[in-house]
Amino acid sequence: GDTESHEAPSMDIRIRVDEDKRTFTMVDGGVGMTADELRNNLGSLGTSGTKAFLEKMKENEENSEDGISPIGQFGVGFYSLFLVADRVPVATQNDASEKQWVWESTGDGTYFVYEDERGNTLGRGTEITLFLKSDAREYLDVAKIKETIHKYSEFIHFPIYIEASKTEKVKVDREVDETKEDDEAAAPAADEEEKEVTTYSWELVNENKPIWIRNHNEITEDDYNQFYKSLSKDYANPMFYHHFSVEGGLAFKAILFVPGKAPSNPFGTDGSATTSNNIRLYVRRVFITDEFKDLLPRYLNFIQGVVDSDDLPLNVSREVLQESRILKVVKKKLVRSALRLISSIAESDAKLKKGGDDKEDESEDDSGSSHSKKLTTETYPKFWEEYGKNIRLGIIEDGNNRARLTKLLRYKSTHSEDEYISLQDYIDNIAEGNKKQKNIYYLSGDTIEKIKQSPVLEDATRRNIEVIYMTDAIDEYVVGHITDFSGKKLVNLAKEGAASSFEEDDDEADDSDDKKANKRQRKAIANKRKEKYEPLFKFFRTLLGEKVTKVVITKRKTSEPTRLLSISYAVFCLKKKKKKYINQYNNKLIKINKENI
To answer: Which has fewest Cβ within 10 Å: 42, 255, 575, 594?
Structure first.
């Protein structure tokens, strides 16, 4: 053959289609194969029987529960060609071979290996040609091929080109017919005419490079932003990103992004499916899937990004991979990294508040290295407003990370109505103020304005007790999953007896005699007071009858003359994934303020 007829081999992959011949051809500039390697590598596939493979596929479809998935078994990638092709020749040239060889089969269990009559057209590498079946013309669609490459091979090391055609009208010189008579030739005519011309060129398909495998020192913030936009199809830049690698027994690289805005329906409450394809899983830069619904838990479904591991197997089905022990380790480490990402935003805000510069977060430990976006303005308040509900849901659903998530809670309070505070901020405020305070107090309501109308809030304010405003319906249930924080319980101030811890400290602070009295004296005074106001108590009991169970004197410092409370309080519960309130107001309690009598 003519060994000089080929182009110099290049380390890339090139695809071309011919609609008239119904062929799909893919050429690479790799090492190629010798004739013996063709027989050993592809010959065994041909003799083992494609028909048997196809029959096994059909059997699995009919009995999917007991059938063994053919995905991951040796040769399935090559066998699948005959699902769409009648004939497949594989031409290859290896540097150790003087001749270019062809392996060819029609998928009937036989194959042929012969010298390529075209000579050395490859220089080095392999060319696979599919003579497609009549019902497989869709694989000749250049747009569909590009879409497939973008989805599965966007980030592989080698460039992938596709031959694209372009047809356009161009002006060419008009040909003169010299056979015509002189008088006809002398007739006036245009010098140019339009003709359709088709040109062919190689178009690079996988232009986006896998930035997660690059050193973060080489990547600019604009690079991260552009990669996020190509990944998420979002028009805006991400709020935050975290680029990290995990090393050791299991190694993987990842970039996680927090979008600037939360989705309109993050948990599918309108019946739509929750977001599950925000994390794209790659194995050695080959896309595997974005359909692992539990790669991140539901409450972190707003986070987008990529995970790429060299340790996960490529030749197994997604179902097998999802149950893989290695993948379970990836999930655990991924959740921890996502929570670390969120914590980094809060830590950045703390540095900015202190007047320091938020240096880019670059750290390295036993598990690998990480790098996060540098923030120049406080960002966590915006994060909380967008994703606070997700953090609350995480406290309910993720017991293993509840302590970490609790630190991420943010609320406004009576001492901080303009800025959010954490529970740790609340504890620090106690240390600076009322050190005798035993609990963390909160009140819940639809809005802060409505909470401010509560008489119990007035009592706490007069005693200089900070009260947290909880305005989300799920907050009551969240608190039910937090036993305490820093040794202090979270207590609903509206609950009867909730303020007893600070009432004891300054009980009857307006009565100087009571201040000096010991516990027994205070009890005697309370009994005397009860006896004094018994006629009033009796009046209310007679007036209201069964509507009340008990009438007492309140110790709260409030301007309200009376308060009506329920001994059994509203219980917030989730039943069958639906919000439901159970209200029990069978036992009413009236508290009378003696200052108004």
So the answer is: 575
E strand or H helix at 431, and its extent? helix 423-432
Distance CA 202, CA 140 (A): 16
Rounded-to-integer distance, Cα 343 and Cα 296, Å: 17
The Cα 221–Cα 239 span in angstroms is 12
What are the structure tokens assigned to 145, written together? 């091929």
Q: How far apart are the first and last CA of the chain?
A: 116
Tens of pLDDT, residues 149-163: 988 888 888 899 999
Between 496 and 561, the higher pLDDT residue:
496
pLDDT tens readout for residues 277-326: 789 988 888 888 887 777 889 999 999 999 998 887 766 666 666 677 77
Strand 101-105 relative to strand 562-566: parallel, antiparallel, unpaired? unpaired
* Cα separation, 209 vs 157, whole angstroms: 8
Decide: 229 and 221 in contact? Cβ < 8 Å. no
Over the Cα atoms of the chain, what is R_g? Answer: 37
Q: How confident is the model at residue 54 (pLDDT cuts 50, 70, 90)?
A: low
* Alpha carbon distance 545, 244 (integer Å): 68
Neighbour-count burial for 437-449, b at 16+ CB within 10 Å, e otherwise = bbbbbbbbbeeee
Could you tell me the pLDDT band of residue 25, with boundaries at 50, 70 and 90? very high
Contacts of 389 (CB under 8 A, 6+ apart): 266, 472, 474
Question: The pTM is what?
Answer: 0.68
d(CA 154, CA 201): 20
Checking if the pLDDT of 375 tops 60, the result is: yes
